[in-house]
User: Fold these one by one.
Assistant:
Number 1:
Amino acid sequence: MEDTIAAISTALGVGAISIIRVSGSEAITIVNKIFNGKDLTTVSTHTIHYGHIVENDNVIDEVLVSVMKGPKSFTTEDIVEINCHGGIATTKKILEILLLNGCRLAEPGEFTKRAFLNGRIDLLEAEGVVDVLSAKTEKSRSLAINQLSGKTSKLIEDLRQEIVEVLANIEVNIDYPEYEDIEQIGYSKLQVKIRKIYDEICTILKDSENGKIIKEGINVSIIGRPNVGKSSILNRLLEEDKAIVTDIEGTTRDVVEGTINLEGLIINFIDTAGIRKTADIVESIGVQKSLDLIDKSDLVLYVLNNNEELSQADKEIIDKLETKNHIIVINKMDLENKLKLSNEKNIVYISALEDKNIDKLKDKIKSIYNVDDIETDDLTYLTNARSIALLKESKSAIEDSIKGIESLVPIDMIEIDIKKAWNLLGEIIGKTYQEELINQLFSQFCLGK
C-alpha cells in the first residue's frame, strides 16, 4: 500500500457532478500538479478549494477539490476528491491525467480494503459498506447502516471479551493453583459461564435469520401441474404481465422470475414449468427444474385447481412439502370444490382470473415469516453467509467444550475448544484473517469504493 491510487467514485454517465478519489502518501502532491488554484500542499485538512484541472496550459474542467489529511480520513491516508462536472469524457480525462502524473488505478474495493488494513474499520463494517450501496428497501438500509456503524461488531467483540475472561481464569488456575485469592474455576462454574456464551451465540444466530431475510429477501417458487394458473398468479402478485398465459398446457417451459417489495421485504417469485410427465425434451427439463426448486426455495406456493381432485402426484408433492415452508394455493375458488385436503393449515383460496384474495396470499406469506414482528429499531444482525457460517462454527466449538465439561475431560483440553471459538469470532470481524479471503471479499466492491 505504498503507492497512491485513484478511481472514479461516481457512476459514469451524464450528471451534474462526478467525483474522482485519490488516496495515498502522494495524493495531495499529485493533484496539486494538475490543479490551478490554491497550493494544496499548504491548505488545512478537511477543506474544499475552487480551481481548474489543467493539462499543460489547457483547462480541462472547473472543479472543487476536497483535501482530507490522514489519519482522519476513510483510508487513514491523505485523500483528495476532485468534484468535476458530470460526463464520461471529462471524468475519464481527469483520471487519465492523474494516472500520467503518478497515480495507479485502484482495484475494485481498494479504498475500503485500505481502510480495513489500516485499522479504520473492521471486516463487518467493510461488508456493511457494500450492503449500504446495494440496499433495496428501508429495512435493508437500516440494517446496513448499523453494520457500518460498528453496532454489529460490538456484539461479536463482547462475546470475545467474555471468552477471554474465561480463558484467562482457566490459565491462572492452571499456572498458579496456589493463589487462594483467585476464583477457582471448576467444572460447574465453567459450565455456567460457557452455557451463557452458548445461549448468546444462539440468540445472535436466530436474529441473523431475520437479517438474512431483510438483506436478501425470500425466494418463493410457484409449483403445480400445468394449467392450474401459476403464471396468472405470478402476474397478479407482480401486478404486471410478466409470464405468458394461455390455455395450452406446457406454455411455461423455463422459470420466469419477478420481485416485489412487501412492506420493506424483497420477495423473489419464481414461476415454474407445470409438473407432469412429458415426451417434450425442452418441457421435461423445465419440469425437472421445478422439482429441484422445491428444495432450493425458502417458500413454496403449491397451486391446485379447486374443481379438480387430487392426483397421486399432488399427494406425493404435498407430503414432500411437510418439512418446507409452504402454502397450498387453491385457485379458481369460484368453481365447484372437488378437493379433499386434511390436516393442512396453510391454505389460501384465490381466483387469479378475477383477482380475488391475492392480498390474503400476500398476508399469509407475511405471517409465515413474521414480517410485522421483525425488529426495525435495533437491527444488529449478521447478514452474510461468511459471518453466519463462522458463527455456526464457533457455536459448534462451544458445544464441544460443553460436552467436554459434562464428560469431565481435563480443563486444559476443554480450553482448546474455547480458544477455537474465540478465534472463529475474530475471523468474523477481521481480527484474524487469511489474505486470500480479504482479496476475494474486496474484489466484489465497485471501483472507487
Note: Residues 187-216 form the longest helix (30 residues).
Number 2:
Amino acid sequence: MISRTIFVVDDDESIRSGLTYILKSKYRVRSFPDAEEALEAIKGSPPDLVLLDLGLPGMNGIDALREMKAVSTNIQVVVITAYDDVKSVVSAMKNGAHDYIVKPLQPDTVELSIRNALEAVRLKMEVQSLQESCLRENLPGFIGKSDKFQDVIELVATLAKSPDTPILILGETGTGKELIASSIHYRSPNFKGPFVSVNCAAIPKGLIESELFGYEKGAFSGASATGKKGLVEHAVGGTLFLDEVGDLSLEAQAKLLRFLEEGEFYRVGGVRKHHVRTRVVSATNKDLGAMIEKGLFREDLYYRLAVAKVAIPSLNDRPDDIIPMARHFLQEFNRRFDKSFTGISPEAEAALKAHRWKGNVRELKNLIERGTLIGKDKVLSVRDLGLDVTAKRKKERSSPGEPMYPDIPPEGIDLSSLQEAMEKHYIGKALQWADGNESQAARLLNMNHHTFRYRRRKLDV
C-alpha cells in the first residue's frame, strides 16, 4: 500500500518524467516545473519529501527550501544539483536539506537518498511520540482538564518546538513552574541535552555570577586551583532553567543579557570568550514590571527573557482540577507509604474546594501527604487533611446578630424585599467562608460565577 508522497520540483521535463517513472510504483508522486507552483501545493497538503532542483527559474532552490521548511519542519528535502555547485550544496544543507544528489541522476543513488530521508522522518516522529508519552507519565503535578490549564499545556507544546527561544514562566508559589520548564525541555529538540535547574534565590548574590558563568583559577579568594565551569556550560545543548530570576543582582543581569544576545560570556577572572548554545527558560513569582520601575530589574533583560511567556493559573482559578489532582496524589502516597485509602470523603472534598490555596499545587500535595500518613479510616477526612472548615462555618452560623426570618403574618409580607435581604445575607456569608474569593463563594451557593458577581454588585454586598 502506497502511503508516502513525494514532490519532484525541476524545470527539466525529462528529469521530472524520469523520476516519476522510477518512483511511482512505491510512492505517490507529483511533479512541478517551478518552486512557486510546488509551494502552493505544499501549503494545501505537505508531502513527506521533496526532490528539489537548486537551479530553478524564478524563485531559486535555496529560497524555495526556506519557504518549504517554514510551512512544515517535518518535510524532508533532498536537493538536486550540478556536480561542481559546492557552494549551493553547503547553503542548502545549512538551511535544512537532508541530503543532496548530483546530476546526472542515478536511480540507485536517488532511491537510497529517499529511503534514508524517509527513515529519518519516521524516527523523528517516533521520538516525538516517546517524548510526549514520557512527559505525560512523568509529570504527576500536571493533572486537570480545566480550560485555563489546557490552554497552558497547548501553549507549552507549541513553544517547546523551538530549540532556543527564551521563555519566561510566571506564576504564584507552588504552581509548578519547574515542571512547566522541564516539560518544555523534554518536548523540545534539546531533550537529549541536560536540563540544568538553578534557584537564583538560593545562591548568595556574591556567588551567583561565578555559579552561572564559572571562574578561572585564582579568580578570587577560595577559588579552585583549576577553575570551574559554570552552569551555563553544563547546560550546553540542553536547557538552563533560572528559577526566581527576579533575585539576580544587577551585575549578574548584565552578564546574562550579554549571553542571551550574543551567546557568549567570560568566566569570572577570565579573558577568553566562551560561546555556547543552550535555551534559557526563566521563572518568577515576582512582579518584574514593578521591579523595573524601581530600578531593580533591567528592562532590556526582561524583553530578552520574555520573548515568549507562559502564565500558570493559580489553583484558586482552576477549582475543577483540585479533586482530580488530590485523588492522584492520594494514589501516589498510597504506593509510597504502603497505604490502602480508597478515596476522599465528600466533606473533605468540599473542604478542599472551599480552601483558599496560598501554596497552590505544592500545598495541596502536602495536605494529601499529611492525610495519608495520619489517616486511620479507608477514606481521608477533613480532620486528616487538617482543614477546619466545618468548625469555622459552625462558628459563623452561630454568631450573634444574624437576622431571623419570620413566618407569614396575617397581614402578609413583602416577599420581594425578603428575597433580596436573604440573597444579600447569603452572598455575604459565602464571601466570608470563601475568604473573599468570588469563584468559591459562587460554588457554595451553586451559582454561576458571572451571575454571582452581577447579583453582588446589584445588591452592593
Note: The chain has a mean pLDDT of 85.
Number 3:
Amino acid sequence: MIRAKRFFLFLAAVILLTVLYLLLWPVPISPQAWTPPPAPPLSGPYEQNSKLASVERLGIVPAAKGFAPEDVALDAENRVYTGLDDGRIMRLEGTDGHWANFSDTHGRPLGLVFDSTGNLIVADAIKGLLSIARDGSVSVLTTSADGVAFGCTNDLDIAADGTIYFTDASYKFPLTNYKADLMEHRGNGRFLAYDPKTKTTRTLLGELSFANGVAVSPDQSFALVVETAAYRVHRVWLSGPKAGQSEIFIDNLPGFPDGITSNGKGKFWLALVTPRDKTLDRLLPRPFLRKVVMRLPKFLQPAPKRYSFVVGLDLNGQVTDNLQNGSPDCYAQIANAVERDGALYFGSIGESTVGRYRLPQP
C-alpha cells in the first residue's frame, strides 16, 4: 500500500512538472497570431497527378559525404552544380554521373546563380552573399544590410545590369532553427539588392515571413520573391510607373513555396517543398499553443512530408503547369527547379542528389 502510494505521488509529480514545462519553459520565439486562408484543394489547377514519377536522380552523393542539394545551377558548358549541407559546392562531371568537389564555402550554400562573367554567386545561409571564381576561390560580397547582419541568406537572381537580388530568410533565426521562424511568424525576412559596382546592399521589402526564392522577370521590370510561411509570392516592381511598389503575385498556395526561377521565356517555375500542414494552419492563429508545441520533442512537431510538387506560372501569376508525385519513392521535397534545354533540374532538401525531369515536347 505504501509502495503504491509513493508511486502515485511520484507519477503526480512527473505530470505536474511536465505540465509546468509545457506551459512555462522559455522558448526562443515570440509568436504573432496569423490566420491563414483555407488551403486550396488538390483539384483544378492543383489536381493530383504522378507526372514527376519519371524524375531521374543524377549521380548519387553518399549521405555521409553531404546531403540536401538545395539549389541547382548550370554553367555555359551545361555542367550541373549544387551545394550540400556540409558546405561543399559539387559539379557533375562527364556522363557517368560522377560528382566532384568544385569549392567549399565552409558554411551552408543555398541559392546558386552564375553571373555574366562565369562567377558562381552563392547565397550561403551562414557566410552571406558570396562569389566563387572559376578556380573555386571564394570571396564575400556582403553580410549585412541597414546595420543588421544576415541570419539566413537564402536565394538569389541576377538582373541584366548585374544587380544581385537576394533574400535573408530570417535575420533572427539561423537555418538550423528555421522551424522557429515559421512558428514565430513575425516577419523576420528581407528582400535585398546588392550593387556590385558600388558594393552596397539595400532593403527592398521587409517584414517577410521566411523570405525565400527570387526570380527576375525576362524584361527586367519586376522581381518575384517567395514568402514561404505565408504561402505566397510577391511581385516587386523594379522599373516603370510602379517602380519600388510591391503586390501579391500569387496567394494561398497549396504547399510551402521555396525556390522560384524564370525560364527566360515567360514562365516561372515554383517549387512547393512540402504540402500545407493542417495542424500548423490550426496553430497559426494561436500564439500560446505554438509556444507549447515548440517545447515538445521534435518528432511531435510539424515536419515536412515526402512529396514532389512544382508548378509553372505565367507572367500574371496564373498556374500553367502542375507537376506532382506522391509515391513513397518520389524525388521528394523539391526546393528549386531550373529549366535548361527541355529539362527541369531539381534541388531538394530531402534527397542526396540532383533530380532531372524531361519536359514533354510540343
Note: The longest strand covers residues 200-208.
Number 4:
Amino acid sequence: MKFCSDCGAPVALRVPEGDNLPRHVCTACEAIHYSNPKVVVGCVPEWQGRILLCQRAIEPRLGYWTMPAGFMENGETAREGAARETLEESQSQVEVGPLISIISIPSINQVHLMFRGRMLDEAHGPTSESSAVRLFAEEEIPWDALAFRTVIHTLRHYLEDRRQGATGLHLIDLGASSA
C-alpha cells in the first residue's frame, strides 16, 4: 500500500501507538490501514451419499478437483457465501449446514470455513470456473488429483465423521506452502 484510501496522502509502515505490529499509517490524516487474512468459504455438497466435486477451469491448480469454495464477499454471511460459491462453481443449489473445518493458513493469509452442504436436487454442471462437475461415491474420490491440502483435510474429516454418524468441527493449522 502506497497511498491512504481515505485521503490519498502517502502512507508509512510503522507501529501505531498502542499496537504491536507495523501497519500502513497515513502521513496526513493518521488513518491506520490494517491488512488482515482473507476468508474463504465453501462446502461439501452431498446428494444421496455422493459428494459433488468441481474440476478447476482456472488457476491455481487448473484441471484438479476441489469442493466449491471461494472468497467471502462483504455483506454476506459465511453460509450465504458458501451457497453462492457452490452455485457459481457447480450450478448446484445447497442448504448449507454445520461447519466441518476451520483451516488457518498463515503462509497465504487465509482462513477457510468449510461447511456440510445438502444439495436441494441433483442439478449440477460446469461453469466458467469448473470444466467438469461430478458426483463421486466415497471410493471414487480422485485423492491424487485433489487441488489443495485444505480439500484433502476437509474431505477426510467429513467422511470419517459421516462413517461415525458425527458432525464434528475440526480446527486445522497449516504451515508454509500447505494450502
Note: The first helix runs from residue 78 to 90.
